[in-house]
Amino acid sequence: MELKKRRVNIWIISSFASLLFLAACSIFYWKLVRLGYAVPIPDILDVFCLNNCADDLNVLHKQFPSDNSLNYDKPLTQILGEPDKLDKSRISILVEKSKYRLTVYSDKKPIKSYPVVFGGNPTGDKLKEGDSRTPEGVFRIKDMYPHESWSKFLWLDYPTKQSWRKHLKAKQNGTISWGDSVGSEVGIHGVPTNSENIIKNKSNWTLGCVSLENKDVDELFRFVERGTEVEIIK
Q1: Which tens digits make up the pLDDT trace of 174-217?
Q2: Is residue 184 exposed (0-12), middle (13-18) or buried (19+ Cβ within 10 Å)?
Q3: Is the distance from CB of 155 to CB of 165 less than 8 angstroms?
Q4: Residue 225 burial (CB < 10 Å; 0-12/13-18/19+)?
Q5: Lowest mean pLDDT, pick from 32-36, 111-115, 164-168
């Protein structure tokens, strides 16, 4: 009887220790994901192409406007109507880094363009935290809110599965270090108060975000929603 009790106690202790170990591992993994050092568990199969790897060359906007200042002098309300009466699921955004331009599309047709600037190292795709590059690819707005320093912030869902693939490939070919993080908190926002000349002078000042004049990001903020697609190209 005493031996049986000892075995039960040992089993309870070992089970509890196992649970503590799993909990500690889960917390550690979650922290690695938050810091950009580990792929989120739901994305692992797609990131490592074990589940019908998606095409990385998705193109949302095939009709590019030729005019860099397309309808820039017209308010969006004049073109699209009041935002509270608009089906915002029709809206998408194209950012062209080489043209310093962000264009609002409705039903994939160009509506209005805005001048923008980028990360301090504007050439090339973002591969890691701290490279001051603006990522390329197809993203979605995952959150949006007022910002105390830059008027508004439209938070993109970087890193996506495609972002992770490019990051890991860069590690494999030695372009970046295995100790580098993929990065996070990339978005679209305004500029510090009274700093609109940053945009006019095409001064790339961010750590990787897309930046507009405050009046422009304020207008854009009213016409997008969580889930709005944002395509960023060279």
Answers
A1: 999 999 999 989 999 999 999 999 999 999 999 999 999 999 99
A2: middle
A3: no
A4: middle
A5: 32-36
Q: Pick from 175, 170, 162: which is nearest to 53 by CA?
A: 162
- The half-sphere exposure of 194 on its side-chain side, counting CA atoms within 13 A, is 0
From CA 162, how far away is CA 227, in angstroms rounded?
Answer: 17
How many Å apart are CA 211 and CA 199, to the nearest integer?
Answer: 8
Cα angle 103, 108, 110; round to 5: 35
For 217-227, how does the pLDDT look when each residue is reduced to its tens digit (9 = 90+)? 999 999 999 99
Q: Where are the beta strands (DSSP E) in 107-136?
A: 109-115
- pLDDT greater at residue 199 or residue 26: 199
Of 136, 230, 129, 226, the residue nearest 188 (C-alpha): 230
Q: What kind and span of H or E run contains 230?
A: strand 229-233
Residue ranges in the chain assigned as alpha helix (H): 2-35, 44-47, 76-80, 161-172, 197-200, 214-223
Taken in order 100, 104, 105, 111, is the CA torsion positive or negative? negative
Q: Which helix or strand (DSSP H or E) is residue 145 part of?
A: strand 137-147
Distance CA 24, CA 10 (A): 21
